[in-house]
Amino acid sequence: MKYSYPDVRYCASLGGIRTSMKQAILAKKTGYVKGFPDMQIMKINHLYGGLFLEIKADKTCYPSKEQKEWVADLNEAGYYAKVVKGLEECMDVLDWYMKIP
Q: Is-contact 68 40, C-beta < 8 A?
């Protein structure tokens, strides 16, 4: 991401990282919310207020109920949110989004 789009602000969440119970409790106390998308791209364009991606390893992986709810709520709020499966789809959506003026 930072090599292809060095001027864009982004953040990756804790999603997919296995933590100890102590770390999980601390993450929740500091604001981590179950189901929040893995990647947030802070670039507004004339269609959307930002890009949120829930990234699954491949076509055999599916989003949780909470992840689906986050994607729906973010889309309703004016962002572009999507569940992507695999690196190729992730990069395709990212490249598509970055081309929107």
A: no
Provide mean pLDDT across the span 79-86. Answer: 97
CB-based contacts of 59, cutoff 8 Å, min separation 6? 85, 86
Strand ordering across the sheet containing 80-85: 9-12, 39-42, 51-56, 80-85
> Is the model's pLDDT at 96 over the cut of 90?
yes
For the chain, the domains span 9-98
Q: What is the pLDDT of residues 15-52, one digit of tens each?
A: 666 667 787 677 677 777 888 999 999 999 999 999 99
Nearest to 75 by CA among 83, 64, 87: 83
**Which CATH fold topology does 9-98 show?**
Trna Endonuclease; Chain: A, domain 1 (3.40.1350)
